[in-house]
């Protein structure tokens, strides 16, 4: 055999061997990450995002003022980051998620994001907006790429709060179910725990809410449902509701938003006065409720009601009131 042919064959063999070893290494890494993936539980701490509206608001507040102190306190609390097409439009969503995942990795925490950009969002109410359906799919794909790039990070996805519970009132149940199915299919990945909208204890009857969740036909892809998102109900009410809903769904798991549940609800969902932050995230849970989280960032307005600015805008006065017993 000519020497050049021998060297060529040896070179090819080396390349093939390296490729096989690399493939085996990737499979081992994937297997370890998959086997080590754990759902949220009591003790789970999510990252306090550097990009939060509370953190960004500090530059505009007077150091030492009550508004500054309340905002600084809230900026340090583990809280869900809300991905919206207004804040993180198409072309930026992957980078945003990747950056958030890096922050979580560097701090040894989980990442919690609320995905909030459906077409016709909030049924045209205070949080109206969202994307047209084609653009929504593109945006979700960008978010999915960011999540998929961080299999080592525990990622909690609160998917489209209010989307299912509002659908009967909006008259778009079939449309919402289709859109959410597609989003779930795109977002599913290693160490990504998806919770769909579960309403709350003072909204739809549990049987009606269960029927909406069952219509998604994605019980094998989602971890469960999220309740009390952006609402004020006390955690005890939400635990009872979560158990009732879980029983109807055959044992589905739940996340409860306790960000503003400390004083319970007075029946008003839009910037009610006299409310308080609730139990810190990761402090409550049982066999149904994986844990509680601060999903709605306290201090962000519910909308132009009861003196508040537009939905999602930082409201320093609300931050002061909500934190008056914990600072």
Question: What is this structure, in a nutshell?
Answer:
By secondary structure, this protein is an alpha/beta fold.
Task: Going across the biggest sheet, name each strand in turn.
Answer: 1-2-3-4-5-6-7
Global Rg: 22 Å
| SSE pattern, N- to C-terminal | HHHEHEHEHHEHEHEEH
What level of helicity do the residues show?
40-55%
Architecture (CATH level 2) name of the largest domain: Alpha-Beta Barrel
Classify the oligomer. Answer: single chain
Number of domains: 2
- Provide the low-confidence segments as ranges: 25-33
Task: Characterize the biggest β-sheet.
Answer: 7 strands, parallel
Structure characterization notes:
With 327 residues, the protein is an alpha/beta fold. The chain folds into two domains: 1-36; 41-322, TIM Barrel, CATH 3.20.20.40. Helices cover 41% and strands 10% of the residues. The chain is built from ten helices and seven strands. The chain has helices spanning 3-36, 53-57, 66-75, 93-107, 133-148, 163-170, 173-187, 206-215, 235-248, 316-322; strands spanning 81-83, 111-115, 155-159, 192-197, 224-227, 253-257, 289-293. The chain has a seven-stranded parallel beta sheet. Helix 5 packs parallel to helix 7. The longest helix is centred in the first third of the chain and has 34 residues, at 3-36. It is globular and about 90 Å long.
């Amino acid at each position: 055999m000519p020497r050049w042919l021998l060297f060529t064959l040896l070179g090819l063999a080396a390349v093939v061997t390296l490729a096989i070893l690399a493939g085996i290494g990737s499979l081992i890494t994937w297997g370890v990450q998959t086997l080590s993936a754990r759902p949220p539980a009591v003790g789970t701490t999510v990252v306090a995002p550097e990009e939060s509206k509370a953190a960004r608001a500090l530059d505009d507040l007077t150091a030492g003022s009550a508004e500054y102190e309340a905002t600084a306190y809230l900026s340090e609390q583990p809280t869900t980051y809300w991905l919206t097409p207004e804040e993180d439009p198409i072309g930026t969503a992957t980078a945003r998620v990747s950056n958030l995942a890096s922050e979580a990795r560097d701090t040894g925490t989980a990442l919690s994001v609320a995905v909030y950009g459906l077409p016709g969002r909030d049924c045209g109410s205070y949080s109206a907006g969202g994307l047209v359906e084609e653009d929504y799919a593109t945006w979700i794909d960008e978010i999915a790429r960011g999540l998929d790039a961080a299999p080592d990070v525990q990622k909690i996805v609160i998917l489209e709060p209010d989307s299912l519970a509002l659908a009967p009132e909006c008259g778009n149940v079939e449309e919402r179910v289709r859109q959410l199915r597609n989003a779930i299919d795109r977002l599913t990945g290693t160490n990504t725990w998806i919770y769909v909208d579960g309403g709350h204890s003072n909204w739809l009857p549990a049987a009606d809410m269960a029927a909406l969740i069952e219509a998604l036909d994605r019980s094998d892809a989602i971890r469960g449902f999220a309740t009390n998102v952006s609402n004020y109900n006390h955690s005890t009410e939400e635990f009872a509701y979560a158990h009732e809903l879980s029983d109807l769904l055959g044992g589905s798991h739940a996340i409860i938003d306790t960000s503003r549940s400390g004083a319970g609800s007075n029946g008003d969902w839009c910037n009610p006065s006299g409310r308080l932050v609730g139990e810190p995230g990761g402090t409550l849970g049982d066999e149904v409720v994986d844990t509680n989280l601060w999903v709605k960032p306290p201090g962000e307005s519910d909308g132009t009601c009861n003196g508040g600015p537009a939905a999602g805008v930082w409201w320093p006065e609300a931050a002061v009131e909500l934190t008056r017993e914990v600072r």
